[in-house]
Amino acid sequence: xxxxxxxxxxxxxxxxxxxxxxxxxxxxxxxxxxxxxxxxxxxxxxxxxxxxxxxxxxxxxxxxxxxxxxxxxxxxxxxxxxxxxxxxxxxxxxxxxxxxxxxxxxxxxxxxxxxxxxx
Length: 119
Description:
This protein is mostly helical. It has helices at 12-44, 49-60, 72-117. It has three helices and no strands.
């Protein structure tokens, strides 16, 4: 998926397409994670859809729950969903930063390779 260090640097339009593709994957991961949260709150705590969306969004965004939870299964779900959301945050950050960091490291490697080979 990413070019080898011996290959030339990816041209600008192809790089932008790679960034857009990674952003799409990140959006899909966030959408699935948000859907899990909305369904969990709706089914376990019997929250209306809009309140379930609000709670899931706030936890996924790192802000914490908005509504009070009354049942033990809902509280357990919220605990596990909060931990899951932290991992999703790290994964999405990685998905978004991979193309940029790879390009920087690849360019740095190409520049240092020119100095050592005398090009």
